[in-house]
Amino acid sequence: MKQIILNQFDMNTPGHIWPGFWRHPRDRMDYLDLAYWQSVAGIAERGLIDSIFFADVFGVYDVYGQSPEAALRAGTQVPINDPTLIIPSMAAATRHLGFGVTSNLSLEPPYLLARRLSTLDHLTKGRIAWNIVTGFLASAARGVGLETIQRHDDRYEVAEEYMDVLYQLWEGSWEDDAVVKDVATGLYTRPDRVHRVDHRGRHFRVDAIALTEPSPQRTPTLYQAGASTRGRAFSARHAETILISGHTKAIVAETVRDIRRQAQAFGRDPRDPKIVLGATIIAAPTTAEARDLYEDYRGHVDARGALTILAGWTGVDFSRYGLDEPIRHIDSPAAQSTLELLTIRSPDRVWTVRDLVAFEPIAGHGPFIVGSGAAVAEELIDWAAATDIDGFNFTRLVMPESLTAIVDLVVPELQSRGAFKRAYAEGTLRRKLQGHDRLPSSHPAGRFQRRRAGAA
Amino acid sequence: MKQIILNQFDMNTPGHIWPGFWRHPRDRMDYLDLAYWQSVAGIAERGLIDSIFFADVFGVYDVYGQSPEAALRAGTQVPINDPTLIIPSMAAATRHLGFGVTSNLSLEPPYLLARRLSTLDHLTKGRIAWNIVTGFLASAARGVGLETIQRHDDRYEVAEEYMDVLYQLWEGSWEDDAVVKDVATGLYTRPDRVHRVDHRGRHFRVDAIALTEPSPQRTPTLYQAGASTRGRAFSARHAETILISGHTKAIVAETVRDIRRQAQAFGRDPRDPKIVLGATIIAAPTTAEARDLYEDYRGHVDARGALTILAGWTGVDFSRYGLDEPIRHIDSPAAQSTLELLTIRSPDRVWTVRDLVAFEPIAGHGPFIVGSGAAVAEELIDWAAATDIDGFNFTRLVMPESLTAIVDLVVPELQSRGAFKRAYAEGTLRRKLQGHDRLPSSHPAGRFQRRRAGAA
């Protein structure tokens, strides 16, 4: 049976996808504390979770009410700390758990980002994945002194060139046998095996060697979540794990077919990208208890905080509408396509603003799976079979209890059904997910890889 | 008696100030391994070391031979990994040890650096110091696509504005009582206590709130090491710990007088900046054994690797000169002033190129203190008394044995003479060093601090 991938989705901030759980009496989340993060890593590794994936955002959600006020009140992704800095200590407390992290390539030169991600790959012994984000919050642009964010399509053009620079630094600058550490001759690195990157592109110029020696994966495992047409194409070309959303099996299956078709069109094995669906899981010893837990959690969701996020995603200032207004009446042209995406696939339902944040499945959030460990496991297996996805990305809820419930109740039921590993595979995150440590030569990074005569 | 500050000086790279020790049979340095770094932190904390200070460089030394070849061969500060990423795991393994880290403000927008350093201050519970560097390697500029580095004085003008932006983000954006986490009302942050930074300067524009809540120190403890006239003035205005070099007591005493005078001219208490001298310490149970150890270490210094660094500092391509050439013959006008600084204070000695890297004191390296624990302690106390410095910054040698020797042999002798603390003070790094958690209102950051009516 296909082995399902399980990722935990998290963020270095008080409120993530569903803000408000910091008010729950059993919530122990303390994003400022390393011991907290190390304990989360330990729980995840005990459950053989493939990776914890940290979202990030470099700005505040200020579309709702045209100010950051609502986000600040609810703790909705603000304050937001740097996620890269918590990963090494979580790595020190674990041996196999992978770590995905979002870094936005719009805000800093590739030469800086390359070094930071290579350092993470070294320190985690090859357990790092980078979620490629090209940025969308106007507030981030204002933070770094840019007048406006780039047009969407331009952003992806810049991103393509940015990736080329990174691939040259990661794959082409240092050969595998560059570092020899030969005590007898005092030779640390063979200079003839280190190559200068000389890139003169439209958006970037780099004339330098990479600063880091080859890390276990060289290029970190690549995650991407672009849902637009252009973003989908970018994913299909570059990404090894693609994060998707969708709240019905039919919609998700269609998305998966499209991604695999596009990957194939780029010369990749259509099964090569691992497709992972965002999902909200609530497990308890019995399904009745799980339903009670669902109601309990639902009562702690901060609806305005959640609308703040949705306002940022769609560009619609939901503060201007009553919670019970049907959203078809919202006449912001910029937002129509996103709202269509969220709702049009349920044409027989009249959606209100409140429905969008009712702790129920909409397209942006993916399915809600609530039940006993066995019931959840069956449902996950069913989703995977029906949609051809490879796994799930679990939304952070009340921590750590919602993760502990997955580990203790759902994982054993998946294992007993043959749908989840009983031990981690050895090696890097890419080896665990794809069977090899380095990107294959068929990947866009491959043309920058150096092959010695006689090398495999 | 004055309590001496002790810092360990380190770098996330195979070869730091004295390259070549990776070849020493007892060297256990493994810069890619978190467990190694955690063990170093543990040794330092056992010895009540005030902080480990990580240098950084964002480029390669390529003046020697006009290429990175010599640096690569010796492992001289290349490969070089991001130092910020090893600090949190070292913090997780300790409780009091401080962590200084160099970040170059020339390469990224202040909005990014502000969040990263605030995150470090949170995760270390207020134990972080930032060493302000404005950059000097042309290779770094080429890495990030800049044609040339800025002129030296312009760099400091940009740095002054950059600091203003950081101070506004750190000191002025979030009030101390902004985060309330009030479960009853669901209020995480009071929006009226969070203020937008609206900075429109010559070099930077920022229109955003800080992304992080106030960290224990807000502005991290500020280190600086500028030795030029302009750099000295910048230090005297901003820095709380100033790192200096100098190989004779007379020279160091003069430097200290000048710094304290300049600090006073900026309205600061002249004793406010802690002045820390770079020094190479070799301690052993007996002075005879220490001298043997010195010869042993000296035999493992990579002379060409060390010249590579000196070439970067001075701009002189030492590959063009024989090792025994008197350096007065070197006719690079750009380098004269630095070479003067290194040597002119010993006018009766004819310096050769070899002398500059002979593992002996020159101005750029500071004193060598070799002896039994008692002898080294006496000499440190004597230096502190004669020069008015506040402490020392120990050059990394063979690791961890050279640090362990300081901790086990020198620290107890300093303690028994009343010159070194017997326990860490509680609280943040700034509290330990300066007696308070936050920058005082007299500091240049003070004008961005908000004081509520009735607040202390």
UniProtKB/TrEMBL annotation, chains A, B:
It comes from the Bacteria. Transmembrane segments: none annotated. This is FMN-dependent oxidoreductase (Nitrilotriacetate monooxygenase family). Coiled coil: none annotated. Residues 434-456 are annotated as: Disordered. InterPro entries: Diverse_substr_monoxygenases, Luciferase-like_dom, Luciferase-like_sf, NTA_MOA. It holds the Pfam family Bac_luciferase. The keyword DNA repair does not apply. Residues 29-385 form the Luciferase-like domain. PANTHER family: ALKANESULFONATE MONOOXYGENASE-RELATED (PTHR30011), C2H2 FINGER DOMAIN TRANSCRIPTION FACTOR (EUROFUNG)-RELATED (PTHR30011:SF16). Belongs to the NtaA/SnaA/DszA monooxygenase family.
